[in-house]
Amino acid sequence: MKMITDEDLTLLYYGEHEDPALAATVAQSKELSARYDALCAELKLADAYQPPLRGDDYGAEVWQRISPHLGDKSSKAGGRLGNWLASFVQPRFSLAGALSIALVAVLAFVLGRNGGPVPGSDTVTPASVAAVNGTEINSERLLNRSVSAHLEQVNILLTQFVNTSETSAGETGHVTDLLVANRLYRQAAAVQGNQKLAAFLADLEPLLIELAYQAQSGSAATRERMQQEVEDGLLFRVRVMNQQLSKSVTSV
Amino acid sequence: MNFPANLSQSTHVYTSEMSQTEQKIIRKAARGDRAAFRQLVLEHSHSMFRLAWRLSGEETAAEDIVQEAFIKAWRKLGEFRMDASFKSWLHRITVNTAMDYLRKHVRRKQFETAEPEWETTAMAAEEPDTGRQMDISRQTQVAMLDLSEAERTALLLKHYEGHSIEEVARIMEITTGACKQNIFRAVKKMRVALRPLVAT
User: So what's the pLDDT on residue A97?
Assistant: First the structure.
């Protein structure tokens, strides 16, 4: 008869022994039963090694802490093609913002050349007026649409900012991107003569500067104060302006 | 004498079968659906905390490990195969994260320094009367932290989480033979450490 080792008894204890007859063999032997009982008693003590209890809302707490650190992975799901398509579908500063800024700059240049009276010519034909007006409408729509997308990003950033207690890894870079974009859009709005929009974006700039600084080295107290300021009004203003711009884009 | 009767420790045992609902949630989360991933976090946080705590022996470390493991899981969800057990997959990430964390923070050293009276199990063996009065949980923890990483991990996954040896081997990325050896060594050491605490 094969000798029954402690390893056999351990496997039996965990229900992993290959020999289904082992339990009966152990039960029939006084010596084996004593060894098995000793093993059970000693391992049973290990059950006392219990972690501190977490509350029912522990899962929600974990989610609260990790959610700001989860990057947007939806673009990864579809592979390269998915990435490429997603870059057009999703509002992203890197592509949409840069492209819009470039177009606004080009249109501002075109408007600057075409908008004023042509030197050496006193006559303005109806066709040239229509062409200029048409360009103005398109450039205004383009600017509004671009700023609307930009404000959507600002809205997301501020919403995350007021709802989290820690600075996320990507926050600094994102704020800096938005700050640069904000300046360009402000200049574009000023060039186009939209002083209301330019003034609003100018109001937004100090907050973005402070956010960029705070994301790098700000204290918890500063963050709390800024969160309060954002909640008290700025977030609301961003949303209202965004709605107005969206309406103007769809109504023109 | 109680035999396990084909894994009668039903509360510990985890079957690798996933419900259709869970598969659906995992698929959605893998596509980037945050709400779906939130559901997975809510469902598995406690189990991951228990494992992380037993691996690290420290509450704060365990919380850090759980968070880090979930962030890694979110990034790697696209790699998860539906024919595997999701809980085992999460446990593998948790174990790897815990090992990285412990190597960085050398938690065990701090623990031993802070609690010199629990430093060796030999003390309990020499003084059975004192050992009996000790907090069994604490002594078990010390014995557990005295195991090698591989022994501790294998024992935790088998004894507390109820994974089969095959699953433990998969989680630890070792052969079933090596897995069994780790469990045997761990059990042997734990028995030596806990024997003095068994009431006679």
Answer: 52
Which of B33, B66, B164 minimises the CB distance to A62? B66
Contact A66 B158 (CB under 8 A): no
Q: Which CATH class is domain B116-200?
A: mainly alpha
Residue A26: which pLDDT band, with cuts at 50, 70 and 90? Answer: very high
What is the per-residue DSSP string for A147-210?
HHHHHHHHHHHHHHHHH-SS--TTHHHHHHHHHHHHHHHHHHHHHHT-HHHHHHHHHHHHHHHH
From the candidate CATH numbers 1.10.3720.10, 1.10.260.40, 3.30.1600.10, 1.10.1740.10, the one assigned to the domain spanning B18-114 = 1.10.1740.10
Of A17-31, A199-213, B176-190, which gets the smallest average pLDDT? Answer: A199-213
pLDDT digits (tens, 9 = 90+) for B86-139: 999 999 999 999 998 888 776 445 444 444 333 343 444 444 444 554 578 888
Dihedral sign for Cα B59, B60, B61, B67, please: positive
Please report the pLDDT score of residue B8 as a whole number. 35
Residues 97-156 of A with CB under 8 A from B: none
Q: Which of residues 43-82 of A touch B (CB under 8 A)?
A: 43, 45-46, 48-52, 54, 58-60, 62-63, 65-67, 69-77
User: What's residue B117's pLDDT?
Assistant: 38
Nearest to A77 among B30, B66, B190 (CB): B30
Q: Assess whether pLDDT exceeds 90 at residue A208.
A: no
Q: Does the beta-carbon distance from B41 to A6 stay under 8 Å?
A: no
Q: Do A12 and B4 touch (CB under 8 A)?
A: yes
Which pLDDT belongs to residue A248? Answer: 81
Digit-coded pLDDT (tens) for A56-107: 899 999 999 998 888 765 544 444 444 444 444 344 444 555 555 566 556 5
Residue A68 placed within a domain: no
Residue A14, domain extent: 6-48
ipTM of the modeled complex: 0.77
Whole-prediction pTM value? 0.54
Q: For chain B, say whether A33 makes contact (Cβ under 8 Å).
A: yes
Question: Of B190, B196, B195, B192, whose CA–CA distance to B129 is shortest?
Answer: B196
